[in-house]
Amino acid sequence: EAGVAQSPRYKIIEKRQSVAFWCNPISGHATLYWYQQILGQGPKLLIQFQNNGVVDDSQLPKDRFSAERLKGVDSTLKIQPAKLEDSAVYLCASSALAGVGNEQFFGPGTRLTVL
Amino acid sequence: AQSVTQPDIHITVSEGASLELRCNYSYGATPYLFWYVQSPGQGLQLLLKYFSGDTLVQGIKGFEAEFKRSQSSFNLRKPSVHWSDAAEYFCAVGAWAAGNKLTFGGGTRVLVKP
Description:
The complex is a heterodimer of chains A (115) and B (114).
Chain A: E1 5-7, E2 10-13, E3 19-24, E4 31-37, E5 44-50, E6 53-56, E7 65-68, E8 75-79, E9 88-95, E10 105-106, E11 110-114
Parallel strand pairs in A: 2-11
Antiparallel strand pairs in A: 1-3, 3-8, 4-5, 4-9, 5-6, 7-8, 9-10, 9-11
Chain B: E1 3-5, E2 10-14, E3 19-21, E4 24-26, E5 32-38, E6 44-50, E7 56-58, E8 64-68, E9 73-78, E10 87-94, E11 102-104, E12 108-113
Parallel strand pairs in B: 2-12
Antiparallel strand pairs in B: 1-4, 3-9, 5-6, 5-10, 7-8, 8-9, 10-11, 10-12
């Protein structure tokens, strides 16, 4: 089966610009996650969707970050305006169901550099 | 709140030698524990997980991990390392009471010498 797809793979922008990332989860997976992985650190959950509803966005900087999953399939994560500290790899993951027992499958990530 | 510590940032091991990666967690209730591997330019791949039962867990690629509640540890081991095992390894803890959220450690980068 096809894995989690993400695009673009790389993005370089200047601070205060906006950027958007796209994720296509594994077909049939109801739960979708966005993680931020800063260089030298482990991934940190930004937001979790169950179908098209938000389950957890407690660590999403809502003043500049937004995410949506309108039809319960694809998702976009947007940053506006970007700051230098947003430079990171943004990972998308999906699982068949919500809950810790369900394996999360990760995409290759989008590496964002903010200059 | 739950947390994970991976004390070793980098480990260098010779091909064919054994490997052990340390992971310590902090969580008040029964944790669910995971080890993921991330190769350069790749997403994370699940190596193994522990939920309950036998405290020695077998995973893919010849890896195993042992859960020790008394030491709050979940160390990853491999008896004989291959060059393809060079990657970054992440330990993670999840718990129902924490909203099913996965918390990752900072990772350990493994370098394999020929």
